[in-house]
Design brief:
It is elongated and about 70 Å long. By secondary structure, the chain is an alpha+beta fold. The protein folds into 3 domains: about 1-40, no CATH class; about 40-100, Winged helix-like DNA-binding domain superfamily/Winged helix DNA-binding domain (Arc Repressor Mutant, subunit A), CATH 1.10.10.10; about 100-135. Helix content is about 55%, strand content about 25%. A 4-stranded antiparallel β-sheet has the order 1-2-3-4. About 10% of the residues are buried.
Length: about 140
């Protein structure tokens, strides 16, 4: 086991070849767990949808979309998204622009969704081929 701190100050460990990140409660999470936790909240998914529609928005612009939520509340959600590397903040002078990073979502899709969907899609292709052969006969 290797342990230490990453450049952002988070405590990290490598156990059995997996990078784990420690929170304040000394609970270790894999990087994938952090992405799932970020995607689990509907407000955070709505923020990602807003950045997908218009990348490079400021916190003020995003907060304007959530009239019922304070700017501080939006910033807390953005912090979780940044921790999961789903949102990349870029400073331009005094302004911080936020950009969508789709890579972690693609990694989740490759690891979880496509793995399970492949079995069903190949079965559907087989069914389609069977129907096509039966119709020709």
């Amino acid at each position: 086991m290797f342990g230490g701190r990453d450049p952002g100050g988070l405590q990290v460990a490598v156990v059995a070849g997996r990078l784990l990140i420690c929170d304040q409660e000394v609970t270790y999470y894999s990087v994938m767990d952090i992405v799932f936790r970020a995607l689990a909240d509907p407000t955070r998914r709505e923020i990602l949808d807003a950045l997908f529609a218009e990348d490079g928005q400021t916190v003020t612009q995003l907060a304007g979309r959530f009239g019922e939520m304070t700017r501080f509340g939006v910033m807390k959600h953005l912090g979780v998204l940044e921790e999961a590397d789903l949102v990349i903040p870029v400073r331009q002078g005094r302004t911080k622009r936020l950009y969508l990073n789709p890579v972690p979502i693609e990694q989740v899709a490759n690891r979880w969704i496509s793995k399970y969907a492949a079995r069903f899609t190949s079965a559907l292709v087989g069914l389609d081929q069977h129907i096509t052969r039966t119709r020709k006969a």
